[in-house]
Specification:
The protein has 3 domains: about 140 residues, Haem NO binding associated domain (Beta-Lactamase), CATH 3.30.450.260; about 40 residues; about 150 residues, Reverse transcriptase/Diguanylate cyclase domain (Alpha-Beta Plaits, 2-Layer Sandwich). Helix 8 packs antiparallel against helix 9 and helix 9 packs antiparallel against helix 10. With about 350 residues, the chain is an alpha+beta fold. The strands form 3 sheets. Strands 2-1-6-5-4-3 form a 6-stranded antiparallel beta sheet.
Amino acid sequence: MSAEIGREALAAQAGPGSDTGSATETAALDLLMPMHLQLQPTGHIAHAGPSLQKLRPDTPLVGRRFLEVFELKRPSGLTRVSDLARAEGGRLKLAFREAPRTGLVGLVAPYPPDRGLIVNLSFGFNIIEAVKDHELTSADFAATDLAVEMLYLVEAKTAALHEWKALNQRLQGAMTVAERQASSDMLTGLANRRAMEEVLTRLTRAKASFGLMNLDLDFFKSVNDTQGHAAGDHVLRRVADILRAETRSADVVVRAGGDEFVLIFAGLSNPERLARLGRRIIARLEEPIPFEGDVCRISGSIGLTVSDFYTATDPEEMMQHADTALYASKRGGRGRVTVYSPDLHGGGPGQDN
């Protein structure tokens, strides 16, 4: 039966004074129960509360059969609206037959007596989904409906969660920055001693092969003394750029302090190859560095050792041996690379590889 035929049947059955309620009563019910339905004994919907009709904005509910619009889930097996009144406690569980299939719970009672039924519906636990699907607001619920309080609580919870997530992201970002700063040199952005110790400890525990290079700048004090600390800082930043450019992304470049740098090469322990790299770095360092219309001139001395030289790797011992090789390079005339060997402890110049 079409909605129009349904309306005609309602009109034919309703004599004078037999309507489901006066306009004043209906307005009151709409205010108190905006999700209610008034049903004729035939099962046709005689009136739908404004919030319930809002759930089907393109399909008027009035004139349609109740059981054609809704699927009754509990009590099950009922085929006539007249049987609803005999439902235990008048309680119903139902859902729309057409999408969105919003779930509802309801309470049914005679209205007016012996003339029809009134069904008051609510979303129950489906309220959050329903509000999202149908864009409902607090104005769509009775002022005394606990659903309104629930909506406020959900909104407050959502706002609190959003703020908590934003705060957590800011804290995580701050922690990341703090950790990076704690392990980085502020002037050059290179790793600092703390990071160097962590890397050496990790490589030692893993029994990995690696090379260790100690680099000290030659003539850097002269730059500071004659051209100022601003020039010195500029040179240090330029040195950091050169070391990054000449090493692999997996290598660790450390500013150990002042004009001293340490380079750690995980997986690279060939002394000849490292010595060639050291000479290439020194050649780059000896290129004039422009600064404010002038140039700064430096060089570098390098001492290196590799984990393969040792039966058991000891980071502190390797650092001492790299220092020994470095000072051998200094004594040998600077601007050179020296590979550690036990002979260097005699104090003579090291062998340039």
